[in-house]
Amino acid sequence: xxxxxxxxxxxxxxxxxxxxxxxxxxxxxxxxxxxxxxxxxxxxxxxxxxxxxxxxxxxxxxxxxxxxxxxxxxxxxxxxxxxxxxxxxxxxxxxxxxxxxxxxxxxxxxxxxxxxxxxxxxxxxxxxxxxxxxxxxxxxxxxxxxxxxxxxxxxxxxxxxxxx
Length: 164
Description:
Elements: E1 20-25, H1 34-46, E2 50-53, H2 56-65, E3 70-75, H3 77-87, E4 93-99, H4 103-110, E5 116-120, H5 123-140, H6 149-157
Parallel strand pairs: 1-2, 1-3, 3-4, 4-5
Helix pairs in contact: 1-5, 2-3
């Protein structure tokens, strides 16, 4: 038996490579199925980190494991109605997209939630929106420092090169 301690009691905390991740929640996700592979490929062309969950519980568990950053969710209409109620208040959830086959059926409840960006029957407009929000997240995370104008001016002239 080795002297290492078990980390099973410590919950796994995930750190994201970028400042956001995308979670797709749908009970019918099957990555070996062409109907899922195509939308997943389109999503992964826009954002590299797309995580598939088949239950709302899996999604909530995943969100709870995230240390920092923002999460963008794509949910089926069927699971979304329950899931949105559970996750809408989480600060790390930035935007939610409902991806379904029957737009009219889900628009009425979806408009009640401010974080829902819309109900979509195609993955393409979701990808376009994600491209924008992902870019904003990357842009927001660029480290910056501000130096007072006076220091910059003195630094250029040199503090000991004052006019006599």
